Amino acid sequence: MSGIIGVFSAKKKDVTDSLTYGLFAQQNRGENGAGVATIKHGIKIKKGYKSVGELFSERTDAGRKSFYEFLRETKPYAGIGHTLYEKSSGLQPTEIENDRYHIALVMDGVFLGYKEKNDIVLARIFFKALNETEDEIKATARVMEILDDAGFYNACILVQNKSETKLVAFRDPRGGKPLSLGKNNNTYAIASETQGLDGAQIPFLKDIEPGSICVIDEEGLRTEKLVEKKHFLDIFEYIYFASPNSIIQGKNVLEVRKKLGKRLFERYGYKPNILCPSPDSGRGCALGYSEASGVEIKEYITKNPGAPRTFQVEDPTLRQLASLSKFNINPLVKGKRAGICEDSIVRGTVMGVGTSAKLKARGAKEVGVLVSYAPISFHSYRSDVREKMVAEGLAGKSVEEIGEIVAKSIGVDYVFYNDISDVIEICGGGNFCTDSATGDYSFIKKKLLRFK
């Protein structure tokens, strides 16, 4: 997961604000770094291991003005931006140039089979194909052919030659990651989420279809479907990755998360004294569960500002340290039967040594965990880590049985999961990437998996 945005004014108007605030609106998709590339007189790039706010407020010109102020003076008519999360990619934008073309690329996603960072690989494949075909559409078709069933990826690319500049965007044929297109008069924007378009103040036009390309230049927009395949949107976009304010495949993410919470109450009927959402992705579940059950929500779990995400911290010692420091618990929980609303349980470290242990230390009488997602019994296709998942080896058992086993493992009184069939139904039905819950890796070539 990372956040990408591209903005292009066909009339060469300043896009600084749309690019800046569109990227700010996608900080949720990556906190480990940020970068932008802009075009006025050539492609200019700025990036670093910092937040979007730090990037744009950093001083330039011997401290006389911020980078944002510099852009306002430069008045670029096109730009791309990136927020970094995925460890398999590097700081972006990534650029390549020769005497014919100059490109800058940002991407979201993961594909397998290469030793280099994903953004470097994608940029090189596209750049080589562009030089060979001299056509952005043909070059993208070549990319999709070479990366066939290697994983999920989206990209925005600034392409400049001696005579023209274009913004190119494409979405992999499996549609693993969302990508949206917006338009405001003669200015176009492409973003990982609709919230990015909202930040850019460019109205949503449509979702970019899997296997499709958009080419934007001074003549306007061209779109073309290049490859048709069975789609596998990563279901974790609804569960965890996406902002609750975004709309994916026509569904409001917050409403989906609320329905998952409601379904948990319908299935189990558990009624604690209070509901405590786990910040931040547990809030939708808590809202839905509260509406269905009448149990009051109490914000007794608060996140430490600046606490790192634990989802991809691989070292067990570091993850335990991160888990212990991630949340604080309000002492008002004492004597209460508390229901924690959570998006998922992966290894159980955060919930076990972190949240639930702290709740009990504060005097909670009972701790039940309400999980939006299904039990995670398998490694994600992108994983190269063999550390055991808390529900690993339990596939085939009912969600009720798995909940009982996991509850004992992480030291809580109850764990309540949604069934994966209910999750898929609530997310709109059809095909999704649910590999961590089902072990279905049919969307990727088996020889590329790092585990068998």
For the terminal residues, how far apart are their CA atoms? 23 Å
In DSSP terms (H or I, runs of 4 or more residues), the helix count works out at: 14
Q: Strand order within the widest sheet?
A: 3-2-6-1-12-11-13
Structural class: alpha+beta
Q: Give the number of domains.
A: 2
Features of the shown structure:
452 residues, alpha+beta, Glutamine Phosphoribosylpyrophosphate, subunit 1, domain 1, Rossmann fold, 2 domains, seven-stranded antiparallel sheet, six-stranded antiparallel sheet, 14 helices, 30% helix
Task: Give the SSE map.
Elements: E1 3-9, H1 16-24, E2 33-39, E3 43-48, H2 52-57, E4 59-60, E5 65-66, H3 67-74, E6 78-84, E7 94-97, E8 102-111, H4 118-133, H5 136-146, E9 151-160, E10 165-171, E11 180-184, E12 187-191, H6 194-200, E13 204-207, E14 212-217, E15 220-225, E16 233-234, H7 236-241, E17 247-248, E18 251-252, H8 253-268, E19 274-277, H9 283-293, E20 296-297, E21 301-303, H10 316-326, E22 327-329, E23 337-342, H11 349-361, E24 366-371, H12 399-410, E25 414-417, H13 420-426, E26 432-433, H14 435-438
Could you describe the 3D structure shown?
The protein contains 14 helices and 26 strands. The protein has 452 residues and is α+β, with helices and mostly antiparallel strands. The strands form 7 sheets. A 7-stranded antiparallel sheet has the order 3-2-6-1-12-11-13, with helices on one face. Strands 7-8-9-10-14-15 form a 6-stranded antiparallel sheet, covered by helices on one side. Strand 9 and strand 10 form a beta hairpin. The longest helix is centred in the first third of the chain and has 16 residues, at 118-133.
